[in-house]
Structures are given as C-alpha cells and as structure tokens.
Amino acid sequence: MKAVRKFLCASYLWVLLLPLACTFAGVLSNQLVLWANHDKFPVMANPVKLQVFTDGEPSLNPDGSVVVKGGHFVILPDGTIMMDPIHCLMTKQTHLNFLADVFDFQDETMSIGDLMLELGDWSWSFAPFLWGSLLCLKVYRLTQ
Fold first, then answer.
1. CB 41 within 8 A of CB 109
2. Pairing of the two strands 87-89 and 41-43
C-alpha cells in the first residue's frame, strides 16, 4: 500500500483521480436514491412551486394521469405523485431524502449527487493540464 501511495504522490496521479472520484461519488449517490425508492427520484418542492403546479382544479384523464395547471402528474396507487417517469414529489415515505433533489436554484432543483457530478465535470476540464504542468515542473527540478 505504501508503494501505491508513493507512486501516486510521485507521479501526481491524484490530480487526475480527484475529478474521477467526484464523478463516481455523484453517480453512486444518485443511484443509491434510485435503488432505495424503487426507481423513483424524490424532489423537494417548496410551497411556492407546489402552488404553481396545483393552482386550480385538477382534471383526471382516462389513463389515470392528473393534469394540473403548469404540470402533468400521475398519481400512483400508493399515493406517490409522479412529476415525470423518474421524479416524484418528496414525502416522509420516500427514502434517503437528504441525498435527493433538495437544493433549489430557482431554475432547477439539484441533489448532492448532481453537485458532485458538476464538480467532477468542472475539475476534469483543467485537471489534465494541471497534471502535465506538475509533471513538467518535477522533471525540470530533477534536471537542475
């Protein structure tokens, strides 16, 4: 284990592995939420957003879906309100709510996993250049 650590530190490979670790953590977080909720991803909606979706009288379609002003919802037999084929409204019955979509950024609602994916994607855009620069600097220092 010491040899692996020494190699990673000496070759600066940790610079390349860090964005991949962030991406992996984001994917794992989102997948855990999907597994815990039987392929449904809970979304926290604040009262203002809920009012937009539920304003007015909802009408029932023959296929069982509910049409509400500003949205198209399907209510499952267990009472889960589906916003689309994946996302459902967060309730006390949904699991791992702290990992689900809880951060409201006006335009979109994101989860911890989504933020980790964004961080991994952002840091991967410059990590290879940083790694190459550090390696060149190390070679330069060794030749001096």
1. no
2. parallel
**Single-letter residue type at 9:** C
Which of 127, 134, 13 has its CA nearest to residue 5? 13
Contact by Cβ (8 Å): 40, 94: yes
Q: For the chain, list the strands marked E by DSSP.
A: 41-43, 59-60, 65-68, 71-75, 81-82, 87-89, 103-104, 109-110
The separation between CA 35 and the C-alpha centre of its own chain, rounded to angstroms, equals 14
The pairing of strands 65-68 and 71-75 is antiparallel
Q: What does the angle CA 122 – CA 125 – CA 127 come to, to the nearest 5 degrees? A: 105
- Tens of pLDDT, residue by residue over 47-84, are 666 655 555 445 556 665 555 555 567 778 887 888 77
